[in-house]
Please model this.
Amino acid sequence: MSISKIVKVNIEVINIFDVICIGAALIDIVAQVDRHPHDDDEVFVSQLNLFSGGAAANTAYACGKMGLSVAFIGKLGEADVFNNKIVNDFKEGSVETKLIKYSTFYKTGSTYIVLNSKGERRIYAYSGAANYLSENDILEEEISGTKLIYLSSLRNIEPFIYASNLSRNYKIPVVLNPGMLIVEQGFDNIKELLEKVDILILSKNEFKTLFNFRENNLSKNLIKENSTTLFSLGIKVIIVTLGKKGSFLLTPKHREIIQPLKVEKVLDTTGAGDAFSAGFIFGLLQNFRLTFEHLKSYTKIGNFVAGHCIQKLGARNGIPERKDLDFFLDSENKKI
Model:
């Protein structure tokens, strides 16, 4: 059998995914405190928990829990305890793990998160093996086997650029939720990646950092004015998540604030952006239509999933199941 025939067979076997999420899979070590410490200060930790995390991994898990067919591509340490937990949790969330790559030199990454009584957080991230995902780890026969590519929060953007180029070859849409590790590199340094993205999801702070704004308040007009720079790169849709103010949805011709889900108590905002992305992806994958009315529906689903996420501790414990989404869509009369 020729090599070309072997590759063709592999593509047919792997071509089963709604979405492939590429980025970091880490372990989140979450400490709960009454207040954040000052300089040279010490606070008591009332509770300490260990969760699987990482932005792209969280989104993959949420997509799987909501019933999508999803795979994850990232790099873990080859043989350590964190590796085992991440893979096992993926499997429990119906995420395909066969595309994960492993490092014999670097350990699985970890993130240290401190939450105060108001749900405000401080994050310290050690990327470990995750940041050493390379172009060689992104295989064409894997990328070609999906309807959508989702990229998130990996400081090393070279594999993202490579994956985006492959996606273009197969006309596969690319969604980027960059995270601060990418945007803090500066607009000029990540422009090549932005040029290959169809849908861009940014938090308010990420938008401010990308355009080097110093203002505390990011107005709608300021977002609208600067979004033209991003649209000029070929990006079709921009969403800026605004926390308790909802999400600002923009296209070259339309823009609107989409209101958030009303919640009684915010327990933990960790993973809210990842949850939003999963909800938006869920909506998008129902029909792939990019009219503004359809985009509004997808954004509402994103807000719904994020609103559920922040009511429980950890980035994954509050993710709704498919039946919850169906109930929400019925109540909104927005079956898509």
Summary: DSSP finds twelve helices and 15 strands in the chain. The longest strand covers residues 108-115.
